[in-house]
Every structure is written in structure tokens, then in C-alpha cells.
Amino acid sequence: DGLYFCWDLGCHPDPFAILDPEKYLLLYARGGDWYEALDDCQILRTLDIPWSLDDSRCLVAHIVAKPRVAGDLEQKKRQQQTLKYLIGHDLEQEASDRLGELTFTRRKLASPRRVELKNRHDVLYATEPWVTQAPVPSELEEWLNRKLPVTLHYMSKISFSILVDLKATPDVLLQVFGRVMEEQGVEYDFSEELVLKVSGREEFLSGENSLIDFLWVRQCLKASQDLHLSVVPVSNLPPDSVRFVDWPLLRVKLLGFDIPQLPSKPPQSVFVEASILYGGKVLCSVCSPSKPFADEVLWNEWLDFDILLRDLPRGVKLSFTINACAGDTSPTTKDPKPASLKDPKVPTNESMAISFLLDRYSFPVVLPNTFRHSNSSASPTSGLFPDKSTASTSSLSPQGKFPLEKDSVTRRSPSPVFNTKGDHLRRFREESVQYASNLPHFLRDINWLDRKMVEDVHWLLGLWDPGELDVHVALELLSTDFPDEIVRKLAVRRLEALPNDDVLKYLLQLVQTLKVEPYHDSFLARYLIQRALRVSHTSVAETLPSFQLQINKLFPLMQLDRCKVMASKKKPLWLEFSPMPSPTSNTPVGIIFKEGDDLRQDMLVIQVRQTRDPPDSEKSLDLNLIPYGCISTGHNIGMIEIVRNAATIAAVQRSLGGTTATFRNDALFEWLRSKCPLQEIRFVKSCAGYCVATYVLGIGDRHNDNIMITDQGNLFHIDFGHILGNRKRFLGVSRERAPFVLTPDFLYVMGRVKSRNSLYFQRFRETCSEAYLLLRSHSRLLITLFSLMLLTGIPELSAAEDMRYLREALQEDQSEGQAKAHFLEKITECENLGWTVQANWWIHMVAGIK
């Protein structure tokens, strides 16, 4: 490995200033940005430095040494003081403690160590003899005047004894060995360098010392032992290396768990299941022995996973599950029945604590840099990809899913038969880049424990043009199914090309996806920070002459003019602000500030309005929907934009007769006629749009206080507290029986009276069919948007089963004609059940429920 420092010493005015670490910065480039190597205690492998292969196939990294300017030190001090104030901890003090005398000494000793290793002769180092300069003991002097028998062994096949003078050197023994081998006609390579090794010991006889000077020879003479030496070729000596390969299995030490308060019905025994999770897959699981249940259960034993530490992909998670068993849990019991540890009166799921230890190693465990190739256009060298001539010539359908089933490839008779996922990867090399919609299906079947396969996938993604990805595919790659860093980087690169308006459409999912990122420092986090800095302010004055609301930053505001508490359960605030003076309009800007409701659910529903017309869509359908905004600014807190010149259906009914007006079919018609010339087509389109949206999303709790209408006839819904088929119940019975709201007063406006057909009602049915099929054509994007919200804490969207309603409402497994007929049947069903909706509205008004 190599490290290149870029600095022209001849152009530097003070070359010796380079020796002062305070006079320069060490910078490295990554992804078009420059980063400073701040931590002096890190090694190069732990820094996120891009490595590449040079012409000699050696890994090299480039670091630039940049001189500090005078103002840099002062700016750094101010930044450190600000950071110390914010986090309450002095990082400079910690750094100075680490860079003490010990660290300085280690740095000083590193240089002579490198020089010694560079100048060391490998053969002399490996065969360094153990000799003594002490005089020969008196009891051994008699051996100096006679020869001693020495037995030589060669290649474990040839052995013979020779008489040797103890004053001779080891080279003399090797010369005698050569003559004997030549006289006996034994063939061996005379040009090969040989060395004498003590048989059974890692000790060598070499150099210009006499045999009597070797410690081993003197010990043998004292013990009256025979001398046995092996003649070993130098090439057979083990290489000198301080490195060795040790890839242990991953393991975790389970200590135990404790429960402060036992449940009312405790189980008889418990066991712990430890799992390695990667995305949505369980890579490996291991269970502990069962123990009798108590308030404190101790195991104190290691749980070994069947995965080597080196094969763990970046982003894996360790999961523990405590399982309770009811009944006998002896080894003879095959299927112990699981029992729940959760007691409604005792929240053990929040107070249970489990203790474990991870393995410790001699050196830090470092996440290596991602596999890289010096030439991105060259194929990997792992052999997983064949040449183009051997790849399958069949094509993938851009409309269908990538065929990963075992039998899907064998049916292609003209092409070679592939039966493994590796073979699919080969065929995907030339074809998949053209069909980006298949990428998520392909990546789900990759074995992320196979490092060579992962290397090939990273090579493939490096060739991928992000512009070829649809937005819904990029969003799908950001889901929990794909924790791989390179996969998520490709998705973020696609999002970088979106304009601000399109980013805003998916901002809810992008922000919530940060919660499932494997690491805080991610490509998505950096992307969101960059986009935020691009559109937001960089500094704020002490006195704000104007301000902007998060819900709409296009209108600068001056001050709050009106505030009132609304008559609702959570007591939201009605706020009106005066805008900056403008020659065009001075209409106040109004919002409803809510605390206690999770407005992310409302944002998700409003987002469907934009899903009909994504940025890459060629179709368009104007449904006259009111574009009001909604934003969640924190936990159960946010704001909703007020729609001007609008009233709730309940307010309309109260103005035309009170609670009894809920059963007047012409009430809404009379109110609209009094406000403006009738705009039936505007009402028909907006009503159709919300009928489709509320049905597909399964929006419940629809009453006349959360359905509104403008003076111009635009119908719209608000307050989406129940979605995906979750409806309010009374005594276990659902209060809402109709699939969506289509009451007789709505039909009266369309001219649908006593089942009599009308032109506007027919237009309503056609508009509903068009909107439903258009929304259904974007079902993949819609399901992806909801899937990204699964783990964000929304109560009615917390598990994969919650997506079942959405798939059924979209009729994914049906043809377009069958789906259209399905929705038209729902319209007929709503006509027949319209009186039930009116009855619920009457009860709502009488009870005064808000």
C-alpha cells in the first residue's frame, strides 16, 4: 500500500514549517468534497479515504497538505468554543490528553522501526543463530581435538552420518553434504541455497562461527546427545510476517435480563433468541437454553452465530427476542407453546432490560472501504461475471419483474441453462442496465454474505446511470430492504437531479427514512443538509423584519394579527398573519396550529394528491382539488394551511335548518346556488377525486365536520386521523358502512335524484374511473411511499400487514377492466348506503362531537 502527499517543497517559503502539525492541514477528496483528517489517533484504514490501484496494482491514497492561513487558527478556536458551549464538553482538552508524551514517543519510534524493517535481510533474520563468545568449558575441551559424528537429514528421505571437526563452520558441513550427495548420485538442485536447521527445533546453524560456538552444540555435548541436523532449502523457510489470518465466528455473550415487576401470569420458562438482521432479512439466529422464569434470569454464556466476522456486511443489526414457554420445556418436548410476557397492567415491554457483551479483539474492528476498481469500465476479477459471449442473450421485459424463480430461466431453450443466483447475476450484467425498474427485485435476491458477489454488484452499480432510474425506484432503494451503502448512494444520486418542488413532494418520506439509516453519517443525510442550505437562510439578524412559515416559505409575513382557540378536542389555534406590503395582494395568511395529533398521517394522505401526477408522468387529470398545505414540525405538533372562503358541510347544514338539514337532499344545492352561479363540473371533479382517494387510502371517521366545500363548489376533506381501513367502532360495530362518502345531497347537486340518471352523474362515474386507474398505474410509487413510513411510529402504519388494505384497494392482481368494474360497484354500494352516512352525521351534530 502507498500514500502520496502532494506538496511542492521547493515552492514553500519555509520547508521546515512542514514539521509543525499546526502549520498545515491534511486533506483528502471524496465525492467532489474535501475533508480534513482531524483525529491524529486514527490510522489510514479508519479514515474514509478513497483508495485506488496504480499501474503496479498497489493500493494508493492521495492526501494533500495545505498550509494554514493566519485566520484559520482563530476561526478554528471560535468554532471549538461554540462546540464546547453546545455539547458541554471540551474536545480540545480530550485531544491534548491523547497527544501526550506517550503518543509523541510512539511517533518518534515509528521512523527507526520502518528503517530497520526496510534494511533487514530476510534470510539472515530468519536463520539468525544462537551463539556464545564465552570460552569453551574445560569439560568440553577434549572434543576440540577429535571429530564428532553428525547425522544430516535431507527431505525426510536421505540420512547419513559424517565426522566433523568442531572448529569447522556450518558452510563446511554443507560442502561435505554436497560431495556426499554427488558421490551417491542423488539428484538435487545444486544451485539452490541451503541452510542447516536443528532437527525438531526452530534453530539454525549459519554464519562464520565454529560449531563449538553454538549453544545447541554445547548443550548436546554436555548431555551426551547425538547431533541431528536437517539440510533445508532457503526457499522452504516460512516467510517473516507479523500478520496472520484469523476470521472467528461472530458471537455474543448473553448475561441475562431482569424485570422490575413480574406479570400477573408469569410463564414457566424463557429463552432468548439472538438474530443477525440485514435489512428485512434474518441472516442467522441462535437460541439460548431455556431457564425458569424469575424477576432476574441469568445465562452468562456465549452464543455463537454461524457467520464469520469478515462476512458481515456493513449495516447489520443485532436483535434479541425474549420468548416465553408455557408447559414442560424439557429436552423431550418438541414444540413448546409460546406465551406472551406482556401484561396489560404491567408494561414489561418498556421496563425489561437485557444485558450482553460483544467479543473483544486485540485490535479495533475496522469497516473496510467499499470494493473499488481502478477502471470502472473493466469487469471484476472474481470470475463471477463471464465474458459477453457466454452470457445469456435473452432479454428482460421492461414491464415485468426480473425473473428470479428457479424455473424461469430454464424455460428459455435457446440460451444456456442457469440455476443459481450467481448465474442470474451474470445474465443481468449486460441486460439489466436497460431495465432499471427490475433493480430492486434483483438486489433483494443477492447474497450479501458473499463478498465476491457484493463486489460484483458494487461494480455493476458503479456503471449505472442514475438518470435511468425512475423516482419511485430510487425511493424504493431507500427502504429498509436495502441497507447497502452503494445502493443507497445510487438512489440519492437520482434524487439530486430533482428540482425543489419535486423534492418537497417526497420530503416526508426522505426525512422519516433517516430513522432507518444504518449510520447517522449517510448519503441521504448529507443530501438533505445540502438541499436545506441551498434554499434556506445562512444567517439571521437580531431583529427580524419579516419571517416565513415552514408550511409555505414563499410568503414573507410581518406579524400575528388574530388568534383564537377552536372548538375541537385538541384545542388547536387559529392564527392569521399579515403579509409584507405588496401591490398585488394583502390577504392575510392563516394556519391552524395543532398539538397532540400526528400530522405526518395527514401529510401522507395529502401527498397522494400529488402522486396522481408525478414528475415523470405524461398523463394529467385536473380534478379541481384544493392545494392546501400541511406540515409536521415535531412530535405530535404541526400546522395546517387555512383554505379561504370555505365552510364545513356541518356549517352548511346548520345554516339551512340545523340538525334536521342533514336529511335534506337539496341543502347543499341551495347553499351553493346562494353563493355563486352553480359550478356543477367543479363539484363533480373534486368530489370524484376525494371519493377515489378516501377509498384507496381507507380513510375513516368521515363526518360533516371534516368535509368542506368552497364558495366556488370545490369539495375537499380534512383531518385524516384514520387510514388504511381503520374505522371508528361503537360496541365492536363499525360506525361507517359505506366504502366512501357519497351522500344523497352530493348526488342531488349532480342531478341524481331518485336513481334518475343525469349527465353530471355520468361524468362523475367517468371521472372516478379515470382517477382510479391513473392512481392505480402509480401503485408501485404509492406503495413505496407508504412502505417508507412503516417504521416511523405512525400507529396505523406500523407493520407490513397494514399495507394489505392498500394492495387490495388498488386491485393489483386484477386487470384494468376488472379494476374499473370493481370501483363502479363501490359507487353503487355508496348510493345504497347513503342514508347510513346521513344518520351518522345527524348523530354527530346532535352529540356535538368535534
From TrEMBL:
Residues 145-233 form the PI3K-RBD domain. Keywords: ATP-binding, Kinase, Nucleotide-binding, Transferase. One of its GO terms (molecular function) is 1-phosphatidylinositol-4-phosphate 3-kinase activity. The keyword Transferase applies. Residues 334-345 have a biased composition (Basic and acidic residues). Residues 246-403 form the C2 PI3K-type domain. GO terms for biological process: cell migration; phosphatidylinositol 3-kinase/protein kinase B signal transduction; phosphatidylinositol-mediated signaling. Residues 559-835 form the PI3K/PI4K catalytic domain. Pfam families: PI3_PI4_kinase, PI3K_C2, PI3K_rbd, PI3Ka, PIK3CG_ABD. It comes from the Eukaryota. One of its GO terms (cellular component) is phosphatidylinositol 3-kinase complex, class IA. Residues 327-346, 374-421 are annotated as: Disordered. Residues 389-398 have a biased composition (Polar residues). Residues 391-572 form the PIK helical domain. Belongs to the PI3/PI4-kinase family. Type III PI4K subfamily. This is Phosphatidylinositol 4,5-bisphosphate 3-kinase catalytic subunit gamma isoform-like.
